Amino acid sequence: MNSRRPYRYEPLADLSDRGNYYLLMVDLPHVSQDDVHIYLDGDTMIIHAETTYTDSDGGFNHVMYNREITIPRDADPSSIKVSFKQGMLKIIMGKTTHGKKEIPIRRLRLKVNWWRRQLSGYLTWWSARADPFSEARKP
Q: Helix/strand/coil (H, E, C) string of the chain?
């Protein structure tokens, strides 16, 4: 019986934005589908896999994979689809559309123009105002 501690790895992972969904690819070599466990804790996805395999020299290797990935805010946890093939874990997460607001630039320009008019009127009033101290300072 081998009493060595298992090797612990953080598997390679790639999270990419594909327009209307996110694609997460995780490399889990020597792992079968039954050994993979995926948990969702708030905005963190935890991927855990543990396996024992025989290497080319005939020795046994016990390997543990752990990876925590923060999922994007607009990812929809209820639309997660998972597939596993030949050591590659593929996770697809749809995007939510709620919470997004578009701010039109035109409204911002109108507001800037409104402030410009207010300031312009104030400056005109200020410059037209007579300085009461200017007459007192003349000798």
A: CCCCCCEEECCCEEEEECCCEEEEEEECCCCCHHHEEEEEECCEEEEEEEEEEECCCCCEEEEEEEEEEECCCCECHHHCEEEEECCEEEEEEEECCCCCCCCCHHHHHHHHHHHHHHHHHHHHHHHHCCCHHHHHHCC
